[in-house]
Each structure stands twice: as structure tokens, then as C-alpha cells.
Amino acid sequence: MVSRWHAVRILTRVLSDQVALDEALAAITAEVSPEQRGWLQEVCSGTLRWKGRLDWILDSAALKKKPSGWLRKVLLLAAYQLIAQDRTSAAAVVNETVSEVRKREGRAPSKFANALLRKISEHATEWRNLKLTPQMKSKDAAAWASLPEWLWSMLVMQHGREWAESFAQAGLERPKLWVSAKSSEWTPSWGLKGPVPGSWESVQKGAVQGREGFNDGQFIVQDISSQLLIHEVSEIVSSRLSLPASEKPQALDLCAAPGGKAVGLSWKGFQVYATDVNERRMVLLQDTVKRVAPEIAVVSFGEVEKLGAMDLVWVDAPCSGIGIIRRHPDVRWLRRENDLVSLQKLQQEVLLQGWQAVKPGGFLVYSVCSVLKQEGPEAIQRAGLAEAIQKQWLLAPQIEPFGDGFWAALLFKTPGAK
Fold first, then answer.
1. How far apart are CA 323 and CA 321, in angstroms?
2. CB distance 155 to 163 below 8 Å
3. Pairing relation of β-strands 297-298 and 191-193?
4. Model confidence over 87-101: pLDDT tens digits?
5. Topology of the domain covering 4-128
6. DSSP readout, 336-348?
7. Tally of CA atoms within 13 A in the half-sphere of 356 that contains its CB
8. pTM to 2 decimals?
9. Quick one: 221 exposed, middle or buried, by C-beta within 10 A (0-12, 13-18, 19+)?
10. Is the dihedral of CA 130, 135, 138, 139 positive or negative?
11. If you classify domain 224-412 with CATH, what class do you get?
12. Measuring CA to CA, which residue among 50, 79, 46, 42 is closest to residue 62?
């Protein structure tokens, strides 16, 4: 078993230094084996998903003496394993953690850790199945949901308590790994057919590199919510554009990195131009396109105006990422409420820029991986484009097909509109 010391280092980087989990994991890659990295990914992601409730559990079980610092983080890891991790020996978790505490902190803290973890282990099922009650105060309800109180309150205000509860509960689960296939005839031995044409749920754990179909560009990793959105948008737009059969509709993916939407549109028959304002992320876009869809034209952000008006522009705007906190659990602890204000300005700018690139009689998709209204429908209203909406989507982990959280709208630009 890889040292819990590595896991505590990662949690410290995320929670104290405000570093993204992927970045914190990448920093220790050279120190551990691929198998150990997999364990660290699982235990750190799980701990961050459950952290709010785990903090509540630690403080409730500790009574008078509340653990802090390094000790608290190593106890959070152990508590996650005891309460939520499958096929884990409780005795092994307690013994390994106590041994680590003894080496680092000494005998007295190790005795405290031993007593606390055994108490948590005895009530693990009770804590795992804890129900939200109407009597819970906002602070306790947020802890149950494993969300910052500001976010819990905002979700309740915007969507209602029942919706917020089911969103939070689904957010504690491990996300599934979905891939999108280039051809409907391709069938992976490691996949289960999904609800969207070309979608496959991976039944095999671990990285996808090296699997059948990867090197020859047969699939991309893409959540089922994204696949559903691309499929439905493509169906609507293709059916409403009056183009000769020999002519492909022209599409611009304005915030394309890492490339999933651009690839999906290309596979659906669009001539795609893709760019991103973030130069560092452009490298990811270029790598994806090179492997699976070299027919996509990757252009610099500054060249967009030279392309001319498009039949379809997709604006997947920078956002809080609140919709993907199950897949990226660090987001729930890194994001701050005041981040939403600065993001709104950026969202407005990129939305209006995208709208200018749509030809009259064309379409624009505005999407965010967020379920907050100020980043979704209210962004369209602020831009004065609400009347152009043809269809809206609200996707969330508790709503079929149970993928990532998104809000999106399809807008139509009437002939003569600016």
C-alpha cells in the first residue's frame, strides 16, 4: 500500500494551497507506480467528495478534542475508507492509519486516532446512510451534502430543497467512465452500450491509453451528458438547415479544449473549426484532433473573425464547474461565491462574440458545466438573447442519463438579425 503520507500531501495541496487535484496528483507521479497513482486518485477523490460529511463525523466522534492540521487530513482519508470505500478491511485501515500517526506524531496522538477511528468504524453504516431531515439547520444540511454552505443555500434557493438533496446525494457517488465512438459499427470488448448512439460505458478500470481502439482514433473519453447534448443539437440543427446534400454545415467551437465537442460535431457530419482562448489548453485540443479527427481545422483565437459567419457556433463558456463536482470533487472546495461575479463578465463577452459569428438563419449553442442559474439562463437574459432560445437543457447526475451537470440552450438567429 502506498504511503498515506502521499495522500495527505495531495489533500494539503488542494485544501491549503488551492491547487487543483489533477495538478496535485501530477506532481507526485514520478514518485509512485501507476497502480499506486490509481489508489491515490481514488482515495483523494473520494475524500474530497465526502469531505463535508467527514468533517462533521470527525467533530461529532471526537467530542471535546477536534483534530487539526496533518492529523485531521490523515483521519479524513481513513474515515472515507471506513464509511464509503468498497471492499476495504476496516481493521487494516485503522491499523495502517494508527501506524502512520505514531511514526509522524507520536504515541498519544496515535492512541487518539485509534479510539476515534474504531468509533467511526462501529457506526460506519449509520453515517453512510444518514438522511437529510427538515429539522437540520443550513450548516448541518450543507455538511450532510458535503458542500460549502453558500453553495448548498444557492442550490436550494434556485432549484428547491428536494432537487438540491438529490443532486448532493448523487455527487457522493463515483462517476462512470463513458466513451464516444467514431463509428456505430465499432464495439469495444470492455464496454456496455449506452443510451446515446455511439456511447459506451467502460466496465474496465484504469487508463484508456493502450486499450483497443485508442491508438487508431476509434473513440474519445466523453461523459454521457456531453454526448447527449451533441447528439440532440446535431439532430435539430441538421434538420433545420437548408443546405445541399453535398455541402457540410460549417461549425465553430469557440471554447473547444480539450476537443470533445468539436470531435463529436465532426463525427456528426459538420465541417468544424476549433479554437480556445487559453493557449495552454490549445495543446490539449491539438492532441485530441490529431488522434481522432484530423479533418478539424484548429485555428488561433485571433483568427476567428477571418473565418466568416457560421451555420453553428458552440460557446462552452468558462464557468464555476459546479455541475461536475462529482467528477472533479476539488471544485466544491476551491470555488468561492465571489468567483461567479468575475465569471459572468467573461461569459457575457464570449457569448456575444459567438453570436456575432453566427450567420442569419444559423444557430448558437451556449453551454456551461454548471447548474447555477446566473451562469445559464440568466446569462442569456443579460445578453438580451432570451427570445432566440429554441430549446434548453438542464442535465445533472440525478437526472437521466445520470451524467455530469450542464445547462445549455440552442439559439436561432433569425434572418436580418445582427
1. 5
2. yes
3. unpaired
4. 789 999 999 999 999
5. N-utilizing Substance Protein B Homolog; Chain A (1.10.940)
6. -TTHHHHHHHHHH
7. 10
8. 0.95
9. middle
10. negative
11. alpha beta
12. 79
